[in-house]
Amino acid sequence: MADSKVMSLKLLIDKKEKRVLFAEAGKDFVDFLFSILSLPLGTITSLLAKQPSMIGSLRNLYNSIENLSEQYIQPNQHKSTFLKPKLPVSALPVPLLSLDPPPAAANRKFYCCSNCYNRVTGDANTLCPNCRRKMSRELIYVDPPATAAAAATTAKGVGEEEGGLVKGVVTYMVMDDLVVTPMSTISSITLLNRFNIVDLSVLQEKGVHLGIDEALKLLKASLESKTVLTSVFLEA
């Protein structure tokens, strides 16, 4: 399991009820879960469109745009905008799903119309709304200077190596319904009481790996179920 796109976590399972009580996870898995919230709906639909038994009608919308002839599309629009929307610059990378955020503004290209200079676009094929010419003149982006606080943070290397959203200083508890909290002994005991676990022999620890197949199943289950971990790791 040397693949960097495979994550490991430990499940606590109620064997009697055949359910996952919670998962003990590191920051990589928690970052993955939280990064789901940054995904555009079109991206989620494209990832799940080929999954069996995808519920709802989003797949029909997606397929409708995909199959629509270009002759019905406005000249300044592209189907890819809806089928493969770009992640926001501030989004976290989602390595398990092979999704990375777009490059920083300093590495992106911007264009304007050679006739009108009051419009900017990121696509050289865009037509100017004023004169209808292609906005193909490339502009040079000047990155603003970093603030003193940001410069100090960079100098110290704070958060640079870890990346992601959460800190890796603790282990996290991920519930079956994806409620995420920092893990502690007290929280574990409280949870066992909440589930009326008296006989500890019904509990089983199980180590599992999360690769791209499990990630897609988890993404799908998170939209359909309140027992996500059970659906992905016990019912598969």
Could you characterize what this model shows?
By secondary structure, the protein is an alpha+beta fold. It has helices at 27-35, 41-48, 58-67, 80-83, 148-156, 185-194, 212-224, 228-233, and strands spanning 7-14, 19-25, 110-112, 137-139, 172-175, 180-182, 203-210. The chain is built from 8 helices and 7 strands. β1 and β2 form a beta hairpin. The radius of gyration is 23 Å and the shape is elongated. Residues 146-160 have low confidence and may be disordered.
- For the termini, the CA-CA separation is 20 Å
The strand line-up of the biggest sheet is: 6-5-2-1-7
Counted beta strands? 7
The major β-sheet equals:
5 strands, antiparallel
> What integer value in Å does the Rg equal?
23 Å
Key terms for this structure?
elongated, 8 helices, 236 residues, 15% strand, single chain, alpha+beta, two-stranded antiparallel sheet
